[in-house]
């Protein structure tokens, strides 16, 4: 779906950036650089915490009732 294109684009660019900084496409070498990411992309700024989780992430949960999508809530 097109609505996910900006997220996919930024994800690829974040990986490419980590590979460039590590000077390698070997995951063992570039993955540690992801924690040091401070990427300003299409969806905004992306940074990771020490566990590798996205900082300041937003998650929206949905359910379907009677064939209609209904939001369960937003978690920041």
Q: Mind explaining what this structure looks like?
A:
- Helix content is 34%, strand content 30%.
- The protein has helices at 5-22, 27-34, and strands at 38-41, 44-47, 59-65, 68-75.
- It has a single domain, classed as Rossmann fold.
- Helix 1 crosses helix 2 (27-34).
- The model has no long low-confidence stretch (mean pLDDT 89).
- It contains 2 helices and 4 strands.
- The chain is α+β, with helices and mostly antiparallel strands.
Relevant terms:
two-stranded antiparallel sheet, Rossmann fold
What is the gist of this entry?
With 76 residues, this protein is an alpha+beta fold.
The CATH C-level name is: Alpha Beta
The protein's oligomeric status is single chain
What proportion of the residues form beta strands (DSSP E)? 25-35%
Mind summarizing the main beta sheet?
A: 2 strands, antiparallel
Mean pLDDT: 89
Q: Would you identify the CATH H-level superfamily?
A: Response regulator
CATH T-level topology: Rossmann fold
């Amino acid at each position: 779906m097109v609505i996910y294109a900006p997220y996919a684009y930024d994800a690829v660019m974040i990986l490419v950036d980590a590979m460039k900084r590590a000077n390698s496409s070997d995951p063992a070498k570039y993955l540690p650089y992801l924690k040091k990411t401070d990427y300003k992309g299409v969806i905004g700024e992306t940074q990771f915490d020490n566990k590798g989780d996205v900082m300041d992430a937003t998650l929206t949960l949905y359910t379907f009732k009677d064939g209609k999508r209904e939001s369960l809530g937003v978690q920041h």
